[in-house]
Amino acid sequence: MKKVADKSARGRIVGRKLSMKFSTRSGDNIVLDDLDIEVRGGEFIALLGPSGCGKSTLLNLFAGILKPTGGSVSIDDKPIKGPNSDVGIVFQQHSLFPWMSVLENVAFGPKMLGRADPIGTARTFLALVGLDKFETAWPSSLSGGMQQRVGIARALATYPPVLLMDEPFGALDAQTRSIMQDELLKLWSQFNSTVVFVTHDIEEAIFLADRVIVMKTMPGGIKTEVNIELPRPRSPDVIKTDKFNFYRGQILELIREETLKVFNPSK
Ligand SMILES: Nc1ncnc2c1ncn2[C@@H]1O[C@H](COP(=O)(O)OP(=O)(O)O)[C@@H](O)[C@H]1O
Ligand SMILES: [Mg+2]
């Protein structure tokens, strides 16, 4: 495979004393409280936690889509003030422009940033995700897995130092999902962007990440983190190893505690 980017340590994310409070009709909802987080440039982290614990909120703070009500976030020491080209984002689904062809979708970011040859760049990235034959297709004619591949190509086409992914494979069947995880790791090993990957799937988090950050609920924050010391490159067979099982048991227990809290808030 052609090498499209040099390895670099760009994409260091630092969040300090982050709080996020939403004011609603039924009162204030403190979603994140006094959260500190640091992600090394080129690191792959997974944010794991039960539904509603604030994973998407934290990702949106990194993306500059939301502004924290307290604290600050920076990427490579630049404070995040709003949506910016340092981050590429992949959501669970429906993130492609339905009125644009696959090629136009991928070329859109580089074009908006005034980069040279957006179409050529888009072709390079579509080839990387194995979809060069589909450049004239409409997104709606593609399978869910193919649409997510286009989404990843689109997010990477601006060469962002940080790639933010919010349950990107959550709507895919198990088999497609496993293939996409494998492909994502191969892409990441070429780009070495920082990846922040949100999921509520424990195995997905362990398979992909250097570090799994387990979040807590009410209010959301970091419960603990687990360094995943599985060798890379990782093959899908790694999930059969004792070490993988050890991490799975450890993290399952941590998540279970948090999930029970949602059902029994007084405990
Ligand atoms: N714009 C908003 N206004 C009010 N509450 C919100 C808003 N966005 C998220 N929330 C609340 O914040 C909490 C965390 O949401 P979210 O970050 O989407 O969780 P997760 O991604 O972990 O499932 C939820 O209780 C949700 O209802
Ligand atoms: Mg979410």
Task: Characterise the protein shown here.
The chain is an alpha/beta fold and 267 residues long. The protein is 34% helix and 25% strand. The strands form 2 sheets. Strands 6-7-8-3-9-10 form a 6-stranded mixed β-sheet, sandwiched between helices. The chain is built from 7 helices and 10 strands. The model has no long low-confidence stretch (mean pLDDT 92). The chain has helices spanning 55-63, 102-112, 118-128, 144-156, 174-191, 202-208, 242-263; strands spanning 13-24, 27-39, 44-48, 70-75, 78-79, 87-90, 162-166, 194-199, 211-216, 221-227. Magnesium ion (MG) binds at residues 55-56, 166.
Global shape: globular
Strand order of the largest sheet: 6-7-8-3-9-10
Strand content: 15-25%
Question: Which ranges are low-confidence, i.e. pLDDT below 50, for 5 or more consecutive residues?
Answer: none
> What order do the SSEs take from the amino end to the carboxyl end, as H and E?
EEEHEEEHHHEHEHEEH
The Cα radius of gyration reads: 18 Å
On the 0 to 100 scale, the average pLDDT is 92
Helix run count:
7
Percentage of residues assigned to helices: 25-40%
